[in-house]
Amino acid sequence: MSAHATATAILAGELDATSMSSRAASLFAKRFRWIVPLARRVEAAYYGKPRPRVAALADFLINDAGFLRAYARGQTRIVKPLIAAPIMHPIAAAQAWNVPSLCSIGELAEWLRIDPNELDWRADLKQFESKRSKGKLRNYHYRLLAKRFGHVRLIEAPKPRLKAIQQQILHEILDKVPPHPTAHGFRAGKSIRSFAAPHVDQEVVAKIDLCDFFPSIAIARVQAIFRSLGYPDSVAQTLTGLCSNTAPPDVWDDAALVGCDDWRRHSQRLYEKPHLPQGAPTSPALANLCAYRLDCRLSALAESAGASYTRYADDLAFSGDADFARSLKRFLIQVCATVIEEGFRVHHRKTRVMRRGVRQCVAGLVVNRRLNVAREDFDRLKAILSNCIRFGPESQNRDGHADFHAHLQGRVAFFESINPSKAAKLRRLLDNIERRPPSGTT
To answer: How crowded is residue 63: how many other Cβ atoms within 10 Å of its Cβ?
Structure first.
């Protein structure tokens, strides 16, 4: 047997040392003195990290001088095959997160209340989604959207059955894992208000956008999250498959209508690899968790410069006083380098530096002296409400909302959450619309 095969066998639990007598165990310890130091080296290499794969541990051993010396002396051999049952093995921080214990594919299928064959189809570990023709066998609906600067965005909406599975994973697993405190997007109790609030009344505000936030996240990071929670490799791989996708090439047939050729080709190469689909319920939470290290580094970088940092999905915001403003150029170079090191890309055309003398906007909110909505947004909604009173709500429902009144109610409620005193006038206008009789009645 080769050294690599022997190492794999050792780490798979195939050396039977538990059934030996105490005398035999003592002789074993004297003869194989290299095992204890080897175990310490393995522990030092992986302590506090997600449980490594068996193949990764075998690679570690094959590069370990102590193991190679023992192998050369013929001190390694298979005594008796012993396959241990898989168990949950979370990292230290994950032990208090109370995620469901799923140690096998059978337990995962039972937890999701689906047949194992259907589970294999939904997880699509062999990436058949990219090879299936249009029809019922696909797990996603696809829609192309045009973005600014010729970019293309692909919306991948899971079909109802897969969406229900993803929602269960989101609510019962991912929601138990806390993202970094600086992440404000897609979190209960957080909003663009909490995202923008730390940047109010600052000398300078800088805003940076990330390119292709969801599809650019490496799928290995997603699997590492599930393995950090303690799930065995097979379960972590299947959970990753349920939350990721590989887009079929035919979705780009009409892409010429929504973007320039260069960006269309770039997007197609990006989406043809396993990625987080924009449209899946699990993608925002997983993206936040995959960006945890990025948030840690940028938060520490901002703190060292005396600045504030927050992130809302792919929007990064920094702000600080006059001292920070003087070092801003060098600071932004460090931010961009950190973003690239963490596997993301900066959308340089959308980078904005806003000093106190101009309007400082973060996520559409003005943060110059106090948190407020943009004047033109307020005036636009006020005009719509006034026209609803004068000409009827139907005259202003240009986007064809099924419940236009609920749509207006939501917009007014948003303004109230930002600036209640200013939004009081909008509320009075909305109440006047409510007192109007429905169209077609007397």
So the answer is: 10
The pLDDT tens digits for 17-71 are 334 445 444 544 556 677 778 888 888 887 767 667 767 777 788 888 888 888 7
Q: Is 390 helix (H, G, I), strand (E, B) or coil?
A: helix
Which two tokens mark 127? 């990436």
Question: pLDDT tier at 260 (50, 70, 90 boundaries)?
Answer: low
d(CA 303, CA 292): 16
How many angstroms from the chain centroid is the CA of residue 22?
50
Alpha helix (H) residue ranges in 327-400: 328-341, 375-391
pTM value? 0.78
| Kind of pairing between the strands at 365-366 and 315-320 | unpaired
Helix axes 35-46, 54-62, angle to 10 degrees: 120
**Residue 111 CB: number of other CB atoms within 10 A?**
16
Q: Are 246 and 273 in contact (CB under 8 A)?
A: yes
Give the other-Cβ count within 10 Å of 254's Cβ. 9
Strand partners, 317: 207, 310
Q: What span, in angstroms and rounded, lies between the C-alpha atoms of 376 and 414?
A: 15
The sign of the dihedral angle between the CA atoms of 23, 27, 30, 32 is negative
- Closest Cα to residue 270, out of 205, 379, 343? 343
Is 184 in contact with 314 (CB distance < 8 Å)? no
In the DSSP assignment, the letter for residue 183 is: B
Reading the block at residue 289, the tokens are 């968790």
Task: Give the span between the Cα atoms of 207 and 355, in whole angstroms.
Answer: 11
User: What percent helix, strand, coil does the chain show, rounded to 5?
Assistant: 50, 10, 35
Q: Using alpha carbons, list the distances in angstroms from residue 153 to 213, 252, 277, 387.
A: 11, 11, 11, 35
**DSSP-derived 3-state class of residue 163:** helix
> Any idea what DSSP says for residue 84?
P
Identify the helix (H) or strand (E) that includes residue 300.
helix 292-304
Q: Phi and psi of 101, rounded to 5°?
A: -85, 115
Torsion of CA 52, 270, 178, 42, to 10 degrees: 10
| Cβ within 8 Å of residue 404, ≥6 positions away | 393, 394, 396, 397
At 152, which amino acid appears? V
Give the whole-angstrom CA distance, residue 330 versus residue 325: 10
What pLDDT does 163 receive?
96
